[in-house]
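batch job 7 of whatever, protein = Glycine transporter domain-containing protein
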Amino acid sequence: MLLDPNPALLNSLYWITLIAVIVSSASGVLIAGFKKFDLFGVIIIAIATGLGGGSLRDMLLGREVFWIHDQVFFIASLGSAIIIFITARIIVISHRFFLIPDAAGLATFAIAGTLASLMMGVPWLIASFMGVMTGTMGGIFRDILSNEPPLVFHSPLYATVSWAGSLLFIALLYIDINVTPAAIIAGTAIFTARLLALYFKINLPKFRFK
């Protein structure tokens, strides 16, 4: 499935990615804050979280890395980090609050990754997995740098809802739904499913020996 990269499509990808960078960077800041990192450490974690997944996607697809091509994304990640860093000194933020921007970043980056891949002519199944990787790798980088087990490997339905949402997005495009409403529907589904999985503690079966 090849999507023609017309101006409207490129504009949709731009704004979805920008939102993803901002919310994902915010989740990185909160994790770094709970670890009592200094400002530089907070910024590094935020940038790794907000830009890491998309960077890996672009390198695998042979695209110019998005935030190097357009520094607005780097500035957005940096700005998000500094704003949350200051805000956390003014108001009390719960340890669990980071799960909300994390879920929002997962949803928006999954859609952005899938859309970018489809625009490169990548087969639909691989495009959906690129969405998963874009949505989850920033969080993996965040957790590794914070010396935490990656959330994606043990938290309720993390990559699973990302992949399901990416496939839903592709299915909506196949039935000729416009990109913007398709992205809103699939992104909202990922975000909602992730929060519901957390609330009801829904997990995939874990590996165990008999």
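notes: Residues 7-200 form one domain.
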